[in-house]
Amino acid sequence: MHMDKPVVRDGALLIVRIVLGVIFIAHSWDRFAITGITETTGRFSAANVPQPKLTSWIVAIAEGAGGALLIVGLLTTFVAGALMLMVALGLYFVHLDQGIFIDSTHMGMEYPLVMLCALLIIVVFGSGRASVDGVLVRAEL
């Protein structure tokens, strides 16, 4: 059985988009409702993130909106690219000097590296047919 069939690719892209979207929305919810913007700002400040208060708001909004757009598959390639940039900056400012593994004392690089790879799949292969982008492309034909 060949796995290189449009329906398999589109199904895999849908699953990756949904999982990524849920994760980003959960992080946004955490920044707004659980940890809070004030604590997030303090953590960003401790990590020497530039403009920590503004960055906290930008990240929280981008995670929520970007996650929702990934799930429905709207502006998917652009959104995944923007989220890649945000995750890469988080990797640089927060995770880079923490080692590879995440444990009780270190925020290692493994999580952001996996997120970057998953987002790269979306950037390279697009949203697939099971998306708003896919419907809009077919409507143009």
From TrEMBL:
Keyword Membrane: yes
Keyword Disulfide bond set for record: no
Keyword vocabulary terms for this entry: Cell membrane, Membrane, Transmembrane, Transmembrane helix
Subcellular location: Cell membrane
Stretches that traverse the bilayer: 12-29, 68-93, 113-132
A Gene Ontology term for the protein's cellular component: plasma membrane
Record's bilayer topology term: Multi-pass membrane protein
InterPro entries in the record: DoxX, DoxX-like_oxidoreductase
Record family assignment: Belongs to the DoxX family.
The protein's name: Putative oxidoreductase
Organism: Corynebacterium spheniscorum
